[in-house]
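Morning. Coffee machine broken again, so started the prediction first thing and wrote up yesterday's gels while waiting. Chain of 435 residues, entered below exactly as on the submission form.
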Amino acid sequence: MAFGTGKEQVQDPVSSGVEIISLRGSRESSESEVRTSGVPISRDPQSFSDLSHLGQSRVLLVDDQPEVLRGMERLLTSRGYQVTVARNGHEAVAHVIEQEFDVVLTDIAMPEMDGIQLLREIRAHDLHVPVVLVTGAPTVDTAIQALEYGALHYLTKPLALEAVENIIHRAARLNRMSRVKQQAAQLLGHPDGLGADRAGLEASFERVMQKLWIAYQPIVDAKKRKVFGYEALMRSPEPSLPHPGAVLDAAERLGALDRLGRRVRSLAAEPFTMGADLPVLFLNLHVTDLLDPTLTSSRSPLSQFAQRVVLEITERSSLEEVKDARTRVAALRDMGFRIAVDDLGAGYAGLTSFALLEPEIVKLDMSLVRDVHVNHTKQKVIRSMTALCKDMGMMVVAEGVESAQERDTLMFLGCDLLQGYLFAKPGPGFPEVSW
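Came back before lunch.
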């Protein structure tokens, strides 16, 4: 992109993701510049003729040097921008909470809260506003952090107003496009996905951790018309991570799978540790949860009633990630836990998971269950699976049952237990079963 005279692109390995730009006035234009505390400002009116339609863009300027703030505020205001100034990061965060901005332009080197920390704080309140970082002492470390946390630009002083205004112009347009896309997604019923950068993702994930709750869905013995157990399913009202898969993806990207797993296990165990006379608890484990030492701790919430807990390990994940999986599973079984293979038929097709886990329970994936009453191929597959599992002493659970026809067919094919919306949707507490 052309930012006008004096642009020099710093050649650095990290510059491919975040633009690291040195902005200086050229020798020829130096006479037409106003220098405000070391910040050269171009006064060439022809530079801004194509930017007038974005004159109402809202800009937040953050710098701990009052003279720099005054100079930039005066000049940007004269160009028609709505400018708000903050002398430190805390003031800036307060402004972001109170109102929306199209662009945030902030110095990096500030006391108490530097520009990188401010970017992270901003993402806790606004996932989309473009943030431009400015520094008089560029380093590879700060450039890498700017890239990691999603700064739109990384500028080095001295700054030329022409280039700065072009960047503000572009940032404002990107921000407005982002807002429009967000509104369109909401209208179409598709909530926002993962945050656009690490800072935004961290903010979204922290909100999930604060508001996380557990829904329970019954698993029933349809022949006996009796509840066998409840599966614990994590839920969160956070719109930017709208489903468990998105939460797991975020945790994986942030290296927080252990933290998420511990939180889910703690919340899921609460009703069972209060002396309630409840049936079996089914709880999903990510494969990497097997590496968490708290899982086998005698002080963990689940260990207090391990004999009533079934740990589900999905066949969608590869157990090859855990070299000593057999030993770790054996330790869990010694504590009283039972093991289930989840999503059978949807993931790594083979006998690896059976050989390593030797599960007591197998859960058929809902893709096999859907419309099984009219699909003869699925019927043959399920009949073979249930026969094999029974021969090995394993119980079979069919997930995703939504119709009476599916229920009756699955019972006829030999499934021991059933789970799905036909009986109850997941919900807080323990939903009543509809037979």
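DSSP finds 13 helices and 17 strands in the chain. Going to sketch it on the whiteboard this afternoon.
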